[in-house]
Specification:
By secondary structure, the chain is an alpha+beta fold. The protein is built from 15 helices and 22 strands. Pathway: Carbohydrate metabolism; tricarboxylic acid cycle; oxaloacetate from (S)-malate (quinone route): step 1/1.
Length: 506
């Protein structure tokens, strides 16, 4: 047996074991748990951390590069973050929040790169311009107003606008080739956008964590139950699916970052804060092009406007992707429906998640979102030609023979109680934490991974409030924006952003 094979076997053996007691238990082997694990280890290296993942390896579900769009969400191109108000104004509040959160992620990744914890940044992040693209006079007017509002803020000062077809063609020719000359179109562009391989990022973070004596990763381990202990902590029952062995792990703090599986686990915890939450799963598919001649003509992530009734995660976009050093084009997503909460989940996931506490919110959401139901039915009935016709709204000369269909990951949108409506369907992510901070679960979807560091900092604030003063200096070192108001402090923002971009090479 070779030395490398022996090391590999040792790694596999190590992943079959769990701690009996840990200071921190992280459920899920995706970018969220990995990020929180690295943050906590950097803040307190003495913490014993146990990570459990249901699949054979980490980053197999939502963090996998083929299960998400790979967009570094910074609100540069996503029109659903900039709502047009009834008075004609454009609200950029959400865009500012998301951009700031993404800057925080970049700062942390830059720190980890400087420390040698992450390797070559090009393995997980690459500069790709972000563009918005619209058709029709009304939409052109909206995009112009959006540009004027956003470009006035220092977060978006690099944004460009054009309603000239020749300029659009210079930015990315696929959008205009074969398009009628009389059609009203417009686009914005920000060259500092990014494409991110969250799978590669997660693998590097987990590789670092596994190298620490105080941290263990157990794969092929499914959480069967969570129960409170008399001292206020948690006892977690896990099953090693490879060996058919049940084990128990005790921990005073548990984080549930298991993607679509987070809701069922939150329900198992039985904390009052988790009552009333439900989930609505939406699957996605993308058209993928590997033809080098076509790929070479498009260097951007181009987002359009969502169809009526479509969830925000279904905003159509034509993207440059960089996965394992290879460039491809991706278009979609095309929505579908499956009752599974994960690609590897069960057909019983949705029905088994319905409880007395969330029945009214879920029924209310069903009643109030008939347009979404109609949209999903229509999407499920699409043919290959239908999908190519949709692509041609972006790329008029697209031909079916150059594209193939890939199934992406499952996303579980949040359903929660609402006093007026009974229940609402919420997009984005939300932390649900126990009042005592002993357990926190992350629900929802996009722009989750892009904002993972900011979201995990919020977990620290909610669950470790008594430690924040002690950790403040280290947090500021790792994330310089932690102690700055980047929305208001223009000079600090520019300096911090430049430093992170320089380290990451973007």
């Amino acid at each position: 047996m070779s030395h490398d094979q022996a090391l590999k076997n040792n790694d596999v053996d190590a992943r079959r074991e769990t701690m009996e007691e840990a200071d921190v238990l992280l459920i899920g082997g995706g970018v969220m748990s990995a990020t929180l694990g690295v943050l906590l280890h950097q803040l307190d290296p003495t913490l014993n951390i146990q990570i459990v993942e249901a699949l054979a390896d980490v980053a197999r579900e939502s963090s996998n590069p083929w299960n998400n769009a790979g967009t570094g969400h910074a609100a540069l191109c996503e029109l659903n973050y900039t709502k047009e108000l009834e008075n004609g104004d454009v609200d950029i509040t959400k865009a500012l929040e998301i951009n700031e959160a993404f800057q925080v992620s970049k700062q942390f990744w830059a720190y980890l790169t400087e420390q040698g914890i992450l390797g070559d940044p090009k393995e997980f992040i690459n500069a790709v311009p972000h563009m918005s693209f619209v058709r029709g006079k009304k939409n052109v007017g909206y995009l112009r107003k959006r540009f004027e509002k956003m470009q006035a803020h220092h977060f978006f000062q690099d944004m460009e606008f054009t309603d000239d077809a020749e300029t659009v063609s210079e930015w990315t020719p696929l959008l205009t080739q074969g398009r009628p000359a009389h059609e009203a179109i417009a686009a914005t562009r920000v060259n500092s956008g990014t494409d991110i391989n969250f799978g590669a990022l997660t693998e590097q973070l987990v590789s670092y964590l596994e190298a620490q004596d105080s941290i263990k990763l157990a794969t092929n381990h499914i959480v069967k139950d969570l129960k409170r202990t008399k001292d206020g902590g948690w006892q977690i029952k896990v099953r090693n699916m490879e060996r058919g062995i049940n084990r128990k792990i005790k921990a005073p703090f548990v984080f549930v970052g298991a993607g679509g599986a987070s809701l069922p686990l939150l329900q198992k915890s039985d904390i009052p804060e988790g009552k009333g939450f439900g989930g609505f799963p939406v699957s996605g598919q993308f058209l993928v092009c590997d033809n080098p001649e076509i790929v070479a003509k498009h260097e951007a992530k181009v987002y359009g406007k969502a169809a009526v009734g479509a969830p925000p995660m279904s905003v159509p976009h034509l993207d440059t992707r960089v996965i394992d050093g290879k460039k491809t084009l991706l278009f979609g997503p095309f929505a579908g429906f499956s009752p599974k909460f994960l690609k590897s989940g069960s057909l019983l996931d949705l029905p088994s998640s319905v409880k007395i506490s969330n029945l009214i919110p879920m029924l209310a959401v069903g009643k109030d979102n008939l347009d979404l139901t109609k949209y999903l039915i229509e999407q499920c009935m699409l043919t290959d030609e239908d999908r190519i016709d949709t692509l041609r709204e972006f790329f008029p000369e697209a031909e079916l023979e150059h594209w193939h269909l890939e199934t992406a990951g499952q996303r579980v949108q949040i359903i929660k109680k609402d006093e007026k409506k009974g229940g609402v369907l919420q997009f984005g992510t939300e932390i649900v934490a126990a009042e005592d901070g002993s357990i926190a679960a992350l629900l929802g979807a996009s722009p989750g991974a892009s904002c993972s560091v900011a979201v995990m900092l919020d977990v620290l604030k909610q669950c470790f409030p008594d430690k924040l003063d002690q950790w403040a200096d280290k947090l500021t070192t790792m994330v310089p924006g932690f102690s700055k108001d980047m929305k208001q402090d223009i000079e600090a923002y520019r300096e911090i952003r430049k430093q992170a971009n320089d380290v990451l090479g973007i």
